[in-house]
Design brief:
Number of helices: 4
Distance between the termini: 81 Å
Oligomer: single chain
Order of helices and strands: HHEEHH
Shape: flat
Largest sheet: 2 strands, antiparallel
Strand order of the largest sheet: 1-2
Helix content: 55-70%
Radius of gyration: 35 Å
Length: 144
């Protein structure tokens, strides 16, 4: 008979523990909700978040200026010649970009080395310095 009493107490204790935990979770959720909700944008901001412009009547070469959030947005319908010119310019940039990047890297490293060692540096001396650093530190830092 005492087994049944202990079992009933255990079941009741488990129920009270579960009910208390659930009530606590609901209370925490109710306390946190206003804090999270106040981080959402205001309704007036949401209303200004997008704008629609009818560009179907624009002719090639025509420009249009519209206001969005109080700032001008410039819309231009390009002509076929402008599109072709832009494509040529993009191709030119793609072809010359690696050369320019390498040149920037060498010039920047030369300037840094000038400041570090206080002497005039050229490409061959940069190579010598990198080789010397590789010998001292191994190849794990320089990708050799």
């Amino acid at each position: 008979m005492s087994d049944q009493k202990d079992e009933k107490k255990t079941n009741r204790r488990d129920f009270l523990f579960t009910a208390t935990a659930a009530a606590g979770a609901v209370g925490v959720g109710a306390a946190v909700w206003p804090l999270v909700d106040q981080m959402n944008p205001d309704a007036s901001v949401k209303a200004l978040a997008s704008t629609e412009v009818d560009v179907s009547s624009m002719q090639p070469g025509q420009s249009l200026t519209v206001l969005w959030r109080g700032k001008p947005v410039f819309i231009k319908r390009r002509t076929d010649d402008e599109i072709k010119k832009a494509e040529v310019e993009i191709d030119t940039l793609r072809q010359s970009a690696p050369e320019k990047i390498n040149k920037i890297a060498v010039v920047t490293s030369t300037e840094i080395l000038k400041k570090l060692i206080g002497a005039e540096v050229n490409n061959s001396s940069i190579s010598a310095i990198v080789d010397d650093l590789v010998k001292k530190n191994g190849d794990k830092y320089y990708g050799h």
